[in-house]
Specification:
- By secondary structure, this protein is of the alpha+beta class.
- The protein folds into three domains: about 55 residues, no CATH class; about 35 residues, no CATH class; about 45 residues.
- Helices cover about 35% and strands about 20% of the residues.
- The strands form two sheets. A three-stranded antiparallel sheet has the order 3-4-5, with no helix packed on it. The protein has a two-stranded antiparallel sheet with strand order 1-2.
- The mean pLDDT is about 80.
């Protein structure tokens, strides 16, 4: 929306597309990159190299809730652990705790072993050869019905239905 308005403004102010009544995709994209506005998290700017939001105008939050048991009861209490990323820097309000209760990074997950259950080459070849056989027989029987259309038995069978079969 804002990029289209800006591209339209360039169009009507005598910019690079003053001789036409429309703008194309690259002009719209350049207009989006040159657009800045104030959003809910502050000023919004776009990185001209990537087209995504510029890091200096972004606010990212890493939130984690740590549950702790309340002594003497069966209740649990949730405590939020928040870390912010702004202007290419992380800011910790409280230390990040992982699910084991420590600040140690957990180990990476092992790579997944996926069995795609592929059909073997022999079975695939058999299936494809049967498909080719069925197609050839269908074409052959349709040609036979067309060539023998003059026979009484073929006309009684209504050749259109023989073609469908």
């Amino acid at each position: 929306g804002l990029g289209a308005c800006k591209a339209s403004q360039v169009l009507h102010d005598g910019g690079e597309t003053a001789t036409t009544n429309y703008f194309d995709g690259p002009q719209h994209y350049r207009a989006v990159l040159n657009t800045t506005f104030v959003g809910a998290t502050g000023p919004v700017e776009f990185d001209p190299n990537t087209g995504s939001r510029a890091p200096k105008s972004s606010l990212y939050s890493f939130s984690n809730v740590v549950f702790e048991t309340v002594e003497g009861t069966q209740n649990v209490k949730g405590r939020e652990v928040v870390t912010h990323y702004y202007n290419k820097k992380w800011f910790e309000r409280t230390p990040i705790l992982f699910n084991d209760g420590t600040q140690n990074l957990p180990l990476d997950l092992p790579p997944r072993n996926v069995d795609y259950n592929y059909i073997g080459t022999g079975l695939r070849a058999a299936g494809l050869s049967m498909s080719v056989l069925i197609l050839l027989l269908s074409i052959g029987f349709a040609a036979w019905a067309r060539l023998n259309n003059h026979l009484t038995i073929v006309r009684a069978s209504q050749p259109i239905f023989l073609y469908i079969i």
